[in-house]
Amino acid sequence: MASSCQNLILALKDCLKYSDCVVKGGRLPSDCLKNHADELPEECQSLRKATFECKRGMLDMRKRFRGNIVGSQYEYTPRTPPAATPSNPEADIMP
């Protein structure tokens, strides 16, 4: 039960890492999560809320017997990083 929120946390980290706030804004993921939450995509906002509910469920005494349902059934699949585009495509061509 202690790691029932782990998949949600990993998905939130992954979503923050590839969000425009971090990539284009040059901010830290923690800064985007705390101060710029309204700029995050819908996916990150819903993962943030689900992570909060999952952590809250871990402290709820009623759910200790039933189990924390919020995060236990979430499957996390990591994203692949975007391919880096070469800055000078002519330099990559060998004659």
From TrEMBL:
Entry GO terms, CC: mitochondrion
GO BP terms in the entry: mitochondrial respiratory chain complex IV assembly
Residue segments, region Disordered: 72-95
Disulfide bond among keywords: yes
InterPro entries in the record: Cyt_c_oxidase_assmbl_Pet191
Keyword Disulfide bond: yes
Signal peptide positions on this chain: none
Keywords from the UniProt entry: Disulfide bond
Tree of life domain: Eukaryota
Family named by the database record: Belongs to the PET191 family.
Name by which UniProt lists this protein: CHCH domain-containing protein
Species this chain originates from: Hypholoma sublateritium (strain FD-334 SS-4)
